[in-house]
Write a structure and sequence with these properties.
The structure holds two protein chains of two kinds.
Chain A: H1 2-27, H2 31-52, H3 57-81, H4 86-107, H5 116-121, E1 131-134, E2 141-145, H6 146-164, H7 166-174, H8 176-181, H9 186-227, H10 231-256, H11 260-298
Antiparallel strand pairs in A: 1-2
Helix pairs in contact in A: 1-6, 1-9, 1-10, 2-3, 2-4, 2-9, 3-4, 3-9, 6-9, 9-10, 9-11, 10-11
Chain B: H1 2-8, H2 13-21, H3 26-51, H4 57-76, H5 81-105, H6 110-134, H7 156-175, H8 177-185, H9 187-192, H10 197-219, H11 224-235, H12 242-266, H13 272-290, H14 296-325, H15 335-341, H16 346-358, E1 362-365, E2 368-371, H17 373-396, H18 404-411, H19 417-427, H20 448-457
Antiparallel strand pairs in B: 1-2
Helix pairs in contact in B: 3-7, 3-10, 3-11, 3-12, 4-5, 4-6, 4-10, 4-11, 5-6, 5-10, 7-10, 10-11, 11-12, 11-13, 12-13, 14-16, 14-17, 17-18, 17-19
Chain lengths: 299, 459
């Protein structure tokens, strides 16, 4: 029972952190960059592990942030100097990084505590067993799952950045040209966002894997984007939809005995589809109403 | 990458490699030809997606195929390639529809729609896969191989299907080539010609879906995008002709297929897809750097040559102006004299002067630098072009004299001989520029060597 709680808590933190970062990605039309970074973070983790032989938080975070920023920078450079379409340059960079990551994993399969499966699914069901122990291994106090603490720290960092720099992020997101004319360093904020994305993806990696992170980044945020009237509203709604997806997904996984992380992502999609269908329905009704009214008003 | 590659060379891999290339293993030969065909057809069809500016559509469609494969297995409890293929095509198409529909009918933007579709379908596929793995059914073990691809695990039936489909794709592209090209480059023009654009777009989508689906076992869901995208992006650097691009892209695709199949044969545990992507990426980097005309190295060299040329010509002109001020008396000028007229860092100036000396356009002596005969010719010609252009701007464009200099300063390096003659005709061979200075009359005794040099740099 207590392990269920740990899983739910970890999943909720992952989902809410992703939805906050994802909201900015959606608004800045950079969801593909989010997709790319969440793939290439794998290479960052593997390289950091091979270089230092440790899976501690600072190592993983710095490896992932470094590779995440490299992805963003390299695709930008390729777009500018190579004269390629921007989505094509993103596609070339992240597939290469991801491929190298997978090759390294299969080469050093014995040494790395990672396998191809885990890259895709993550293993949220095993999260409660990998715990942080304070003090001696036998006598120390069990502080709870490692993945939980990792995402908690990153979640706090993301939340603090969004709250503290709210005004800045808003200006840069909605009025990039105005921001430039106000003397705001737009490039810095772009890479700041990319740092947040990399941190969130790497912290979510253990729990949900490389590709399902994309679902949590874009789907709840898009659902909120359909309904919200302001940035603040959008952030709250995205967090709400993310949490809803976690609850539905957990139940779904329990019922079908399927992967928890995949089920959470699927439920996020189902929530989005439900909102889309509801909106279509509403619009159609509105249209028929105006169609009935307009001949009257024309008279 | 080299270091990792060497790890594979455990004892015996050389023999394996020989065995592979002697085609003693029929299965290896089949896999090899299948993957070459796939490399070619995916690159060709990917080129059209690239030209339609939908480079990442392959990524989304490949991910979207996953739930189709899984549900086909769940429903029919068989690993028959045709059933799997049909399931994948159906669900890829559902994904294609969703990518198309969402931006048209909701606020969601095209890139977000792509990411949503990709991740949602993939999650659905993984959920079904994990559900299947919990069930007690037969031959479910190889299903997860389509995530990263494993050439060695392909069966004879898989390869036969692969060959039929890729040949079909290549045939259709050849037959519809004219129409597809027109739509790729000018959609609106194609519409006005009355071409059923929607039909061809649908066909193209079907072909993309088919090549993605058939490639899953070889390359895998996650990396299929690269096989569609990277070859054409690399080929784009080699040519501007669509047919050439397609041939080059197909060649690159086939080459990377050969490399990755070999590796899969030497180390059967290795996933094929990532190796294919890495070899494609290497080919891409080579093209990016070294392609003629559009490659970065060539472009850098060209720019550097132009920079040198501009710097040299500026110095020649400055020397000419000094010479003109001294009432056309040839005498040497030192670096200070030159810098008084043209602001330029001393280091760069010295280097430029050295190059001019090497070309014997100026002479170096103790007292300073002076123009040689050839240098004087060239300097006169440049000054003439500069001042003719100033006149042209002043007379024909109605620009006041104080605004014409900056423009002429740029164009003087680019004007050709014919343009100079045109300017003369247009302006009735003037003798003075808008500032009242002499226009040197050069063409009577201009040396042929100087002309040729001017022409060579004018690109």
């Amino acid at each position: 029972m207590i392990s269920d709680l740990w899983i739910l808590a970890t999943a909720s933190l992952v989902a809410v952190a992703c939805s906050m970062v994802g909201s900015f990605l959606i608004l800045r039309r950079q969801s593909l960059l989010g997709d790319a970074i969440s793939h290439s973070v794998l290479l960052g983790i593997v390289l950091a592990f091979l270089a230092t032989d440790s899976r501690s938080l600072p190592v993983m975070l710095s490896g992932a942030v470094l590779i995440g920023l490299t992805t963003a920078w390299l695709s930008d450079q390729l777009h500018k100097t190579g004269q390629l379409q921007s989505d094509a340059s993103i596609g070339i960079v992240f597939t290469l990084f991801f491929a190298v990551g997978v090759i390294l994993i299969s080469l050093y399969a014995g040494d790395i505590d990672l396998d191809q499966e885990c890259v895709l699914y993550g293993e949220i069901a095993f999260v409660p067993f990998d715990t942080v122990i304070w003090g001696d291994l036998k006598t120390g106090i069990d502080l709870g799952p490692r993945a939980f603490w990792m995402i908690l720290i990153v979640f706090a960092a993301v939340l603090a950045s969004v709250v503290v720099f709210y005004q800045r992020l808003q200006t840069v997101t909605f009025h990039p040209t105005l921001a430039v004319s106000l003397g705001i360093n737009v490039v810095f904020w772009h890479y700041f966002m990319m740092t947040l994305v990399s941190m969130t993806t790497v912290a979510s990696f253990d729990a949900v894997g490389a590709i399902l992170v994309v679902a949590l980044l874009v789907i709840p945020a898009s659902t909120a984007y359909l309904l919200a009237k302001s940035l603040k509203q959008m952030l709250w709604m995205a967090a709400g939809f993310a949490e809803l997806a976690v609850l539905i997904g957990y139940a779904l996984a329990f019922w079908l005995d399927s992967s928890i992380s995949a089920s959470i992502a699927v439920s996020a999609g189902i929530v989005l589809l439900a909102v889309v269908v509801q909106q279509q329905f509403y619009q159609r009704r509105l249209r028929t109403q105006t169609a009935i009214q307009s001949p009257l008003s024309a008279n | 990458m080299q270091a990792e590659f060497e790890l594979l060379n455990a004892p015996g891999s050389w023999e394996l490699w020989l065995e592979f290339w002697r085609f003693e293993d029929m299965n290896a030969l089949w896999v090899l030809s299948g993957s070459i065909l796939l490399g070619i057809s995916a690159s060709v069809i990917g080129a059209f997606a690239f030209l339609r500016r939908r480079s990442l559509i392959g990524d989304a469609l490949a991910h979207a195929a996953l739930p189709g494969v899984m549900s086909a297995f769940l429903l029919f409890q068989t690993r028959d390639p045709v059933v799997m293929f049909l399931g994948a095509v159906v669900s890829s198409f559902a994904g294609f529809f969703m990518i198309d529909w969402l931006p048209k009918h909701t606020k969601i933007k095209a890139d977000a729609a792509l990411a949503i579709t990709l991740s949602f379908f993939f999650a659905l596929g993984l959920m079904l896969l994990s559900y299947i793995q919990g069930l007690n059914v037969e031959n479910k073990s190889g299903l997860d191989k389509i995530l990263f691809g494993q050439a060695a695990a392909m069966s004879q039936q898989d390869i036969t299907l692969l060959m039929y489909v890729t040949v079909f794709i290549l045939l259709v592209v050849t037959l519809l080539f004219q129409k597809l090209r027109l739509i790729a480059f000018n959609l609106n023009y194609a519409r006005t010609l009355g071409i059923p654009v929607r039909f061809y777009e649908f066909t193209l989508a079907l072909l993309i879906v088919m090549s993605v689906v058939v490639g899953l076992q070889l390359v895998g869901v996650v990396l299929m995008a690269a096989v569609l995208l990277t070859p054409v992006a690399a080929a784009r650097f080699w040519s501007n002709q669509l047919t050439t691009i397609l041939v080059v892209a197909g060649g690159l695709g086939a080459f990377s297929a050969i490399i990755s199949t070999q590796i899969s044969y030497l180390a059967p545990a290795m996933p094929t897809g990532p190796w294919m992507v890495v070899s494609l990426a290497l080919l891409f980097i080579i093209s990016l750097l070294f392609a003629p005309q559009r490659g970065l190295v060539h472009r850098y060299l060209q720019q550097r040559a132009l920079r040198f040329k501009v710097a040299q010509e500026n110095i020649l002109r400055t020397l000419y102006k000094l010479y003109e001020r001294g009432d056309f008396q040839q005498r040497p000028f030192n670096i200070g004299d030159i810098q008084a007229l043209r602001a330029m860092p001393t280091n760069a100036l010295k280097k430029t002067l050295k190059r001019l000396c090497q070309q014997q356009l100026i002479e170096d002596s103790v007292n300073g630098f002076r123009l040689t005969e050839a240098g004087l010719q060239q300097a006169q010609q440049l000054t003439r072009r500069h001042r003719l252009w100033e006149n042209y701007l002043n007379e024909q464009m109605d620009l006041p004299p104080d605004q014409v200099h900056t423009q002429a300063e740029r164009i003087e390096h680019l004007l050709t001989e014919e343009q100079e003659q045109q300017l003369e005709m247009e302006l009735a061979n003037p003798h003075f520029d808008p500032h009242g200075r002499d226009i040197p009359q050069g063409d009577a005794e201009r040396q042929p060597g100087v002309k040729a040099q001017g022409g060579k740099h004018d690109q």
